[in-house]
Amino acid sequence: MLIGPLAGPWKAVAVTVLLSVFMFPLLRTVGLRAFSMASETYTSGTHSAAFVTCPNDTVAKDLARAIVEKKLAACVNIVPAITSVYEWQGKIEEDSEVLLMIKTRSSKVPALAEYVRSNHPYEVAEVISLPIEQGNPPYLKWIGDAVPE
Hints:
Layout: H1 7-39, E1 47-54, H2 57-69, E2 75-88, E3 91-105, H3 109-119, E4 128-131, H4 137-146
């Protein structure tokens, strides 16, 4: 045990070394994540989330698979059992539907809408989209990689 004037400096060195050894893995992980996020660039609105309602699971799965296979989208989430309330031909309707959440390039939305209109059983198919302002940079990069210009 150190006693005297050297005890303070050695104690400080020992505490610093111990903290460095134990904190290094945490600081490394935080640093790598920060670098990854900072090094990825994304222009707001480059990608979009589009929404399409379907009458049942079969139509939803068929459309989703074809949309991804045709590279009109990187990913389609199928959300089952939604209830839609809407006005159609002067009457208020209520139906059980399935929602497609589609992630794609904004430049692909017109082709996506055309594909859905041509292959959807509804007389007026819902195809709406919203620009993606921001998100997880690696995920947004993946969308861009999966869906060619």
